Known about the structure:
By secondary structure, the chain is of the alpha/beta class.
Amino acid sequence: xxxxxxxxxxxxxxxxxxxxxxxxxxxxxxxxxxxxxxxxxxxxxxxxxxxxxxxxxxxxxxxxxxxxxxxxxxxxxxxxxxxxxxxxxxxxxxxxxxxxxxxxxxxxxxxxxxxxxxxxxxxxxxxxxxxxxxxxxxxxxxxxxxxxxxxxxxxxxxxxxxxxxxxxxxxxxxxxxxxxxxxxxxxxxxxxxxxxxxxxxxxxxxxxxxxxxxxxxxxxxxxxxxxxxxxxxxxxxxxxxxxxxxxxxxxxxxxxxxxxxxxxxxxxxxxxxxxxxxxxxxxxxxxxxxxxxxxxxxxxxxxxxxxxxxxxxxxxxxxxxxxxxxxxxxxxxxxxxxxxxxxxxxxxxx
Length: 350
């Protein structure tokens, strides 16, 4: 009976997330209509992001993420995630405002984001320059904390940390923990309550997130508005939860962590589940939502400075994570699957 209830709850959760996916995809449809992308694709046959960039003048990287999201949503056809086709029925519904009674793209107004954010995203397709998390506004920081919070509050101390070699015992005795990209501090506060003998430092470049984190003060916690590459605090445990792919230079941050982590320390990475293979990733029922999140926030943040990596939400599959950490001198990587539907966890050691 319990197993049946759990399955039912998982199915119900997926149903709810599919509604969220619809919200995000609706914003992507609005961008496609407003930027004239459907019209550019109408009748063009198979088109790559590079070819669409040449045709429209928009930034290729932004187009590729948008195109893949549209294909994941079933609005464009793509066998390889590289070449995309707007099918004839799609043209009738999304492109031909003047000569189709089925035209529907005009019904989408970008309601999943504030008007000023939508305007800024339109500009980003022109310039290639993304938005920082603070430019998305306070609502985004609050929403992110609530979306990611349950796994931090309910699984971090009971399931995840106990699976790491020696970490719990060390934290019970007393150690320094640094959470890079701490956001509103949900994970830090959870750990600080569980391990009062340890000291916790949360760092994040977002002024909005740090302000939210500081509202719930603990004696053994410090929050700093700081970039990941500026870490100068020796630490036994370093956390980067759902944020490496958001960073403009994750390679520089990884090197900074390697330079400051203690010899017996652990770097715990949480990153989005993906394979790096377009066909295999199609099995993810909310892949279109992932690509939409990427355009709005993840890839956008990672392109918010010149030379940004722009990895995107699904841009760090396991081989890429391992290459990233080994390139800066880490030698041991263990991948943990805790049945988190969205993420894998990486236990990284010097």
